[in-house]
Structures are given as structure tokens and as C-alpha cells.
Fold C2H2-type domain-containing protein.
Amino acid sequence: MSGLSMMRPSDAANADTATTERYIFDPGSLSSAQIMGDACAICHVKWPRPRNPLGGLPEGHEVYGCDECAGIVEAHTARSMEHALAIH
């Protein structure tokens, strides 16, 4: 991966969406193709065109990922939720 910077929203901003975690991507670390949705926001693959929403940019635009990267993000989110519930 090249300089990918992915941030999680603060707990205060995420309080009303307790079961849904939205990743915020740093647009400075993405190519124009990734920002426009023409390439996976994680691995840069362009074909087939990524269609899985992975998160968004700070200004609200969606970023998309390929099937493989979307599966990785989904598995990470599920593990994070399990860990959060275990701590709670």
C-alpha cells in the first residue's frame, strides 16, 4: 500500500451510529482515480471498477473498493466491534 491514511471518526461523531463504523480517508493520500471512484481506495485496482463503499472523504464523498479489499475492511470492522463489545 502506498501512503494510505485511514482515520476513524471520533466517538462523539459516531455515537448515533453505534453499529456502523465509517472510515474517513485522507484525500491527500489518494490518487485522483481513487477519489473519483475509478480505482480501489486501497489497492488501486481499476478493473473491474470498484463498487463497494469503503468509507468517505472528510467532505462527504464516498470512496470505493474492490471485492477483496471490501472483504478485508468488513472483517476488520467485525473484529473491532467484537473487541469493543468484549471491553464494554
Observations:
- Residues 10-19 have pLDDT under 50 and may be disordered.
- The longest strand covers residues 52-56.
- Residues 6-87 form one domain.
- The chain is about 35% helix and 15% strand.
